[in-house]
């Protein structure tokens, strides 16, 4: 092939050669377009895969949290329903009075039953809230059943405990029912 006479050597190339070059350029352009399309499709599929992976991980974490909560707090309704049994046993022990020869076995049986019930509660994460007279009222753990001005006490001090409260792990199952002083003198 001869040296091009002017700066535009394509003018010197015969038509057949020019067509060959054009076909090759078109094929390269087509290949490049196809590569770009495949890269875009790959990136889109990778993005979808990453999102699906993240969704699966979030679903696993959610299911694990729900399982733990069901394990820890699933029995809350049953626990609340059993609390009156504890209250009645406690009242029965208090009503029995002092131990005598006649009632010693009865009182011992009630106390043993109450201890066993408390052990079962603890085994399942239920702990009593047992405020004492003179403790400060805590609205997160106590329910004020009444308020009365009692000399010698401070406002917000517990003056009577009507019923113990209970926690289920870190959640309030039932607040302790208390009377609170309103005395400000």
TrEMBL record:
<dbReference type="InterPro" id="IPR009012">
    <property type="entry name" value="GrpE_head"/>
</dbReference>
<dbReference type="GO" id="GO:0006457">
    <property type="term" value="P:protein folding"/>
</dbReference>
<dbReference type="GO" id="GO:0051082">
    <property type="term" value="F:unfolded protein binding"/>
</dbReference>
<dbReference type="GO" id="GO:0042803">
    <property type="term" value="F:protein homodimerization activity"/>
</dbReference>
<protein>
    <recommendedName>
        <fullName>Protein GrpE</fullName>
    </recommendedName>
</protein>
<comment type="function">
    <text>Participates actively in the response to hyperosmotic and heat shock by preventing the aggregation of stress-denatured proteins, in association with DnaK and GrpE. It is the nucleotide exchange factor for DnaK and may function as a thermosensor. Unfolded proteins bind initially to DnaJ; upon interaction with the DnaJ-bound protein, DnaK hydrolyzes its bound ATP, resulting in the formation of a stable complex. GrpE releases ADP from DnaK; ATP binding to DnaK triggers the release of the substrate protein, thus completing the reaction cycle.</text>
</comment>
<dbReference type="Pfam" id="PF01025">
    <property type="entry name" value="GrpE"/>
</dbReference>
<feature type="coiled-coil region">
    <location>
        <begin position="28"/>
        <end position="76"/>
    </location>
</feature>
<comment type="similarity">
    <text>Belongs to the GrpE family.</text>
</comment>
<keyword id="KW-0143">Chaperone</keyword>
<keyword id="KW-0175">Coiled coil</keyword>
<dbReference type="GO" id="GO:0000774">
    <property type="term" value="F:adenyl-nucleotide exchange factor activity"/>
</dbReference>
<comment type="subunit">
    <text>Homodimer.</text>
</comment>
<keyword id="KW-0963">Cytoplasm</keyword>
<dbReference type="GO" id="GO:0005737">
    <property type="term" value="C:cytoplasm"/>
</dbReference>
<dbReference type="InterPro" id="IPR013805">
    <property type="entry name" value="GrpE_CC"/>
</dbReference>
<keyword id="KW-0346">Stress response</keyword>
<dbReference type="InterPro" id="IPR000740">
    <property type="entry name" value="GrpE"/>
</dbReference>
<dbReference type="GO" id="GO:0051087">
    <property type="term" value="F:protein-folding chaperone binding"/>
</dbReference>
């Amino acid at each position: 092939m001869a040296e091009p006479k002017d700066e535009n050597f394509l003018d010197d190339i015969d038509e057949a050669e020019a067509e060959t070059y054009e076909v090759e350029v078109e094929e390269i352009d087509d290949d490049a377009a196809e590569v770009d399309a495949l890269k875009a499709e790959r990136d889109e599929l990778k993005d979808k895969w990453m999102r699906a992976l993240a969704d699966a991980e979030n679903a696993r974490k959610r299911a694990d949290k729900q399982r733990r909560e069901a394990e820890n707090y699933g029995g809350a309704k049953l626990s609340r329903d059993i609390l009156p049994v504890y209250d009645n046993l406690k009242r029965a022990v208090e009503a029995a009075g002092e131990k005598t020869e006649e009632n010693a076995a009865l009182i011992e049986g009630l106390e043993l039953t109450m201890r066993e019930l408390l052990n079962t509660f603890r085994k399942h994460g239920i702990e009593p809230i047992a405020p004492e007279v003179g403790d400060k009222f805590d609205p997160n753990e106590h329910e004020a059943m009444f308020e009365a001005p009692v000399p010698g006490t401070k406002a917000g001090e517990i003056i009577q405990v009507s019923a113990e409260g209970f926690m289920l792990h870190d959640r309030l199952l039932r607040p302790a029912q208390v009377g609170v002083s309103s005395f400000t003198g």
